[in-house]
Amino acid sequence: MKLVLKIFGILIIIIITLMVAIPYFFRDQIAQTIKEEINKNVNARVDFSDFSLSLFKSFPDFNFELEGLVVINNRPFERDTLASIPSFNLTLDLMSVFKGDAYELKKVRIEEPYFKLLVNEKGVANWDIAPKTEESSTTEPGEDDESAFMLKLRHVSIKNARIIYDDESLPTFVILEGVDHSLNGDFTLDFTSLKTKTLVRKASVTYDGIKYFNKVGVELDANIDADLINSIYTLKKNEMRINQLALGFDGSVALHDNDDINLMLTYSAKKSDFKNFLSLVPELYAKDFNSIQTSGSLKLSGNVKGIYNENTYPAFAFNLMVENGRFQYPDLPKSVDNINIHTKIIHPGGDFDNMLIDVSDFRFRMAGNPFALSLLVKTPLSDPAVKGEASGELNLSQIDEVYPLDEGDELEGKLISRFSFDGRLSSLENEKYDEFQFLGSLLMEGVNFKTSTIEVPLLIEKAQLNFSPEYLDLVTLKMNIGNNDFSAKGKIENFMPYVFSDGMLVGRLETGSNYFNLSELLPESSDTPTEPSSPEVPAGETINSVEVIAVEVPGNINFSMNANFKQLVYDNTELNNVTGVIYIREKAVILDKLKMDVLDGRVNLSGKYDTKTPDKPVANMDIEILNIDIQKAYNAFGMMEKLAPIAEKTRGSFSTTLTLNTSLDNELMPVYNSMNGGGKLNTSTIIIENVNTLNKLADILMIPDLKRMKTDPIDLTYEFSDGELRVQPFDIRYEDINANISGNTGFDQTIDYNMILTVPRDKFGGQANAILDNLISEANKSGTNFSVGETIDINVKIEGTITNPQIKTGLSGGSGNAMEDLKKKAQEELEKLKKDLEEQAQKELEQKKVEAKKEADKILADAKKEADKIISDAEAQVKAWKNTSDETAQLAIDEAEKQADKLIEEAKKSGTLAEIAARAAAKELLEEANTNTDEIVKDAKAKSDDLMKEAQKQADKINADAQERADKVLEGK
Question: Domain range holding 451?
């Protein structure tokens, strides 16, 4: 016994081990096969985040689970997510895995999938992802279509799916939420019975902009006999429930090789209670539906018979009859009764123009207020023939007596409406109004509507609208929405061709208001998605994305509206005395001379919003802005953040004339790279403070005053082009600082500006001045009086971005750094001054030399003059001495001759001997006189020579002294 238990235990261990090990051995093999099989059979990008293989979940078969499976479309639905499946389970036959030839697929289970099914305007579907193959005559059937999987499918289940179907070709939009589906049957047989069950917790259907079902519950139980060989499916014991309306289906669907679908279906309501039909009304079904007391009968039936393909539609019929319907909430005093509906829609097949829509009777009475309607439509496609009438009176204050309003909801007032029509649409298109009868009116008085779902109450004091084939006449409209009042009157012509055949709608309207706050009426933006969130998809992919496009202005509207609003508020911006005309025509909205007082200034506006190319709307504007506060404009207009971000830190007012042409994006904001235009701008005295660029410039130049500037008025010219705001050169003045500025701001926040600053010397900060003062001091040590100059010109280059500007500064021809350039300029000025001083000193030296030479020459001249005078005086004295000595000598000779003559004369008297002796004595006397005379002359000459020598000596000394003084003068001593 112990041995048996041991063997049994060992077998259990072996089996468990194999159950764990076998999936491991085949894991990569099966995963690779599945990937290859998927990619071979789809034209899309398919991937999954992880996978697992187990024998425990589906023993004795393999269970293969894919996690995070996504299918991303290729063109023309590129990057759209066709499917996102968090968990995808396949059950594979164990023995087929061991054989390895073809895996037998038994079950498929999908949990919480998301499917987005799209059909574009051309009828192309995004789920048509089978690869296109070319047929070859040489290919044998089955030769290339072998698959790694063999279908032995018996069960398919889907849990909690979300499905979106968006068909632009119809157009139809469907959202199915909370979808459960199961399918059981043996697909290995040629003939099998299929059992399906489908539950849709919320289904919404919109066709051509009209929502026919809103979050209704749908359940379908279907038993189908499937002839898989002949593709014939017979429906039996099938039931569909929409909310509480149950419909039974019978018939068959046959698929033919030529893509024809042969439909033979009938349907009818399984229950005849009026309450079941009433459940289709979303508002009634959602509010205490089970407690509603009802009576009345229901008959609903129809059929679909014939061939359906791209060119042919089958015959179908729809019949609805409600008789003596009534419902009442038990807690309310009055009911809605006398509900009678007789409606049939018949299409005999073929052309849809053969369809007949007949609402012969649709009437009810609500709290005693009657309403009745009838409608007959023939040839709906070629030339609709319509006939009908409607009439009703409604006292709104009685609605809460038949329908439980939400807490806080209030209704008051009276509605009276009557109209009738009979004729063909072609009569309206051809302006043959006498062939089309249409008369009616709508009157609303004292309508007061308050509800918790609408934040502001609505009061229509009076509104009267008259109908005729030619026009709609709004006789009067006076209303209040919260604190807002609004009045209007006017006519709309040709409205019936517009409604029924896209004819041209023509109208004019005069509107006015004393106070109108648009911000109170527009819905607030919210980050909360309107649709339930979708399963996660890989990074970079989107599912359930909704493309937002700009509003296209219809081309068949020619409308004008005169506006006169005394006070209009939008986005917290107050506009006063708003007047002008707004035209809608030729797919454009045109503003004509729209004027308003805003932000303490005035705005005059003309322009056009043009949607001739719907996906690329454009705007052309001529704007005149007068004396608007800069700060208020920056806070009010978001576009200024890109056009003039400096406005955030600027105080003052500005005026501008602006012409602007631009494309618009999906949110009707300018596409900045497309902007063209420009204008002129002038400002008052403005204060610019704490601007990032100026702060950096102030720090670089060490001029603190640049951080807060109060400038004189500015005039400038600007233009938009190539994604930039370009500013032509303009001048600004701040105290005694002047600047010339030009450049551009890119709408990507890049900047590129050139500035020439003329800055007084005393505006530089302490460090800058210390550097300059040190250089100047060094220059002035030699006794000069040097300064850099009264003003300094600085070139400034501003690049980078608004948030991170890069600034380069420099003097003309400088290095790009203002402080280094200032020091360089100071050094250059010093060198220049030094050169000037040297030249001046040289000039002064030459002058001094000239003056010294003049002085030396004068000294020498004076000395020579003095020396010449001494010589001259000496010569004069010598001459005088000579004359005196000559005269003395002559007198002595004359006296000797006289004495000799006297002696001889006396001797003659004594005889010859005495005469001879006298003559000898006279001779001796004359000789002695001559000797004495020579002595006198010699003595005089000696004295004269001495005098001349002394005079010459004195003259030489005077000249030598003068030369010495002259040399000293020339030497500058």
Answer: 405-511
